Amino acid sequence: HSVTFEGVPVERGVLAADGMRNGIRVHREVQMPGEPAAIELTASSGTIPAGRNGIATISASIVDSDGVHVMGANPPLTWKVDGAATLVGPPTYETDTDKDGSQCGDMYIDTPVSNVIRTTERNGPILVTVSAPGLRPGRLTLTSVAPAVDEVAGISEPRLSDAGRRKITRDVSFRAVVASANGDETKIAEISQDYDIRETPGKGYEPGVREFLLERNAGIDSSTPQFRSLVSQLAGVLERTHGHMIADDYNFLIRQFNRTGKTE
């Protein structure tokens, strides 16, 4: 269950709660962050094998001056890799928060967010830098190490070289074209912004979801099992977000419903 405390100002400091669970006193606390100050980087591994097949996931988080993660900070991020590796993902991240219904994006809503690097043929240090306007850049050094010798007697395997190799280039003039579609008619309209839906005491979020759908979609048949399943799915999303309906989550389920008449 959840408890809502009205009129509590959100300030920097420690938000703590004490209670009893099965007769045992429990204590939980959350460090409230200050203003965004810096970018912190972590890696899935500090050393990765050289040879183009070594990869590592780099995660970037925005923190305040005390190193506390700041939720909601999502400035544009610029990724740079120096040394014995290359960047696999895009070099710039723009938040997808305002891209409801967009066909493209970086899957970057809020930090922490990740990118991937791949080693080259040579071993040595790798420096990853992530920067954003107004924040102290995050820097992380990894090491690309020579892979273990795995030669097999009687088998000759020449070592690959980067000499003469060219990178694959993207045709920037290419534009995707929809060849066919099922039409523009939809049973339920998508939304272009987030909404907050209140929980009904003793009944959860389903009554609020049902009212939300019917208010915006006149004539929708609310008596079908498929509609009831959609309401249940959306209510489950709100359980996890404490009543905050994120447009992308809502639209994902609505598209499934409009396309197939059901949600998965």
How is this structure best described in words?
- The protein has 264 residues and is an alpha+beta fold.
- It is built from 3 helices and 13 strands.
- The protein has a 5-stranded mixed beta sheet, with no helix packed on it. Strands 3-5-9-7 form a 4-stranded antiparallel beta sheet, with no helix packed on it. The protein has a two-stranded antiparallel ribbon with strand order 1-2.
Portion of residues in helices?
10-25%
Q: How many strands, what sense, and barrel or not for the largest sheet?
A: 5 strands, mixed
Shape: extended
Query: Which oligomeric state applies?
Result: single chain
Number of H/I helices: 3
Q: Structural class, from helix and strand content?
A: alpha+beta
Compute the average pLDDT: 86
Provide the gyration radius in Å: 25 Å
Order of helices and strands: EEEEEEEEEEEEHHEH
Residues in β-strands, percent: 25-35%
Ranges where pLDDT stays below 50 over 5 or more residues in a row are 179-186
User: Count the strands?
Assistant: 13
Report the end-to-end length measured between terminal Cα atoms: 26 Å
In the sheet with the most strands, the strands line up as 4-11-10-6-8
